[in-house]
UniProtKB/TrEMBL annotation:
<protein>
    <submittedName>
        <fullName>ABC transporter ATP-binding protein</fullName>
    </submittedName>
</protein>
<keyword id="KW-0067">ATP-binding</keyword>
<feature type="domain" description="ABC transporter">
    <location>
        <begin position="3"/>
        <end position="233"/>
    </location>
</feature>
<dbReference type="InterPro" id="IPR003439">
    <property type="entry name" value="ABC_transporter-like_ATP-bd"/>
</dbReference>
<keyword id="KW-0547">Nucleotide-binding</keyword>
<dbReference type="InterPro" id="IPR017871">
    <property type="entry name" value="ABC_transporter-like_CS"/>
</dbReference>
<dbReference type="Pfam" id="PF08402">
    <property type="entry name" value="TOBE_2"/>
</dbReference>
<dbReference type="GO" id="GO:0016887">
    <property type="term" value="F:ATP hydrolysis activity"/>
</dbReference>
<dbReference type="InterPro" id="IPR027417">
    <property type="entry name" value="P-loop_NTPase"/>
</dbReference>
<dbReference type="InterPro" id="IPR008995">
    <property type="entry name" value="Mo/tungstate-bd_C_term_dom"/>
</dbReference>
<dbReference type="InterPro" id="IPR003593">
    <property type="entry name" value="AAA+_ATPase"/>
</dbReference>
<dbReference type="GO" id="GO:0055052">
    <property type="term" value="C:ATP-binding cassette (ABC) transporter complex, substrate-binding subunit-containing"/>
</dbReference>
<dbReference type="GO" id="GO:0005524">
    <property type="term" value="F:ATP binding"/>
</dbReference>
<keyword id="KW-0813">Transport</keyword>
<dbReference type="GO" id="GO:0140359">
    <property type="term" value="F:ABC-type transporter activity"/>
</dbReference>
<dbReference type="InterPro" id="IPR012340">
    <property type="entry name" value="NA-bd_OB-fold"/>
</dbReference>
<dbReference type="GO" id="GO:0008643">
    <property type="term" value="P:carbohydrate transport"/>
</dbReference>
Amino acid sequence: MNIRFEQVSKQFSNHMAISDLNFTIQDGEFVCLLGPSGCGKTTTLMMLAGLYQPTKGNIYFGDQVINHLEPKDRNIGMVFQSYALYPHMTVRDNIAFPLKQQKVPKKIRYGRAEKTARLVRLENYLDRKPSQLSGGQQQRVALARALVKEPNLLLLDEPMSNLDARLKIEMRDELRQLQKQLKITTIMVTHDQEEAMAMADRIAILDRGEIQQFDTPEQLFAYPKNVFVARFLGNPPMNFLDAEIIHELDGMIVHGEGYHFYLQKQLHIPNKTKITLGIRPHDLQVVSERRGIFSAVVTNIEHLGREKLLSATMGEQPIRFFVSNDQKIKYGDRIYLSPNLEAIHIFSKETGENLL
Ligand code: ATP
C-alpha cells in the first residue's frame, strides 16, 4: 500500500510541530524518518497511526483519505521503543493478543501466532513469559505482535534503541530481511543516522517540522541539498570551512583563510559571495608541502583498526581526515592536505543551500 502526505501540518496550541509535509512512500518501501530531537518524527508517526489528527492537509492510504479513520480500522502494526509486552502473558498470548481483540477464535489465533513466531525465530519460546527472554527476543515478540494481523503498514518508533550495539546490528539485518520478504511498507523513526543509512530504501530528513531532503542514502550522502543534511549524515561529520568565490575566466578560485585553490566550475553567483566549503574526512589526502592546499597541525590521533582518524587545526579552524595505518604521523606534526575536488561541496553561507 502506498502512503501519501498532502500538505499536512500539525499544530499543538501555538507550536507548529509539522508544517506542510508533502511526500509519497511507495508500496513495499522501507522509509526512515530521521532528524534531531523535537523535529517532528513521532508526531508524523502518530498521525499515521491515527493517534493524532492533522491540523491541515490529507493523509492517503492508497487512494483513500484516512484522516478520520480510527486507529483500529487502519490495519497498522506498530513497534514502540519500549516493547510494551504484557508481562503476565506467555509469548504465544502476547503475539496472539491483537487477534484476540478482534475476537478471532482461539485455535485460529494460536495458529497464526505460531506461524508469525516462526517468522521471527521464536517458535521455541512460545510458552515463556517476557521476563524469561533476552532483550533481542523481547524485541522480536513485539515485532511478531505487530505483524500477526498481516498489516498493510508497519510503523517502528526507535525499535532498537534498547538493544546493545552488537545486537542492534544483528536486528537491523533481520528486520530488513523480514521486511523485504513480507514486502510490507515500513516507516521507522530514528535519530541514529547510521541505522537509517543501513536500513532504509529512502530517508526523509526532518528539521523543525519540515522535510529537508527525501532521498536514497547514497544520494543524501553524495548530494546533500543543504548544510543541515550534510552535517547530519556521515560520521565523523563533514568538515566545514568559510571561504569566498572569485570568478575566473572558465572557473573560479575558492579563497579562504590561509588557502586558495582553483575549481573548474562556474556558479551563477555574485563575485566574492561568501560560501561554506564542505569536505568529508575521507575526501582529504595528506600530500607534500608543494602539493598541499591546506596546512594544519595534528592535535589528535584515533586508531580505528585499518585506518586512523586525525584531527588537526588550521589556525583556529579544526579539520578531520583519515590516513592509512602505516602513515607515520605524530601528534604536533605539521601536515599538508589536498581535497578531492570531485567530492567537495559548496554551500551558500547565507542560506546553507548547496550551490553545486
Ligand atoms: P524525539 O526524537 O525527541 O522523540 P521527535 O522528532 O519525535 O523528537 P516530536 O515528538 O514529533 O519530535 O515533537 C515535535 C515538536 O512538537 C516538539 O517541539 C514537541 O515539543 C512538540 N510536541 C509534541 N507533542 C506535543 C503535544 N502533545 N503537545 C504539545 N507539543 C507537542
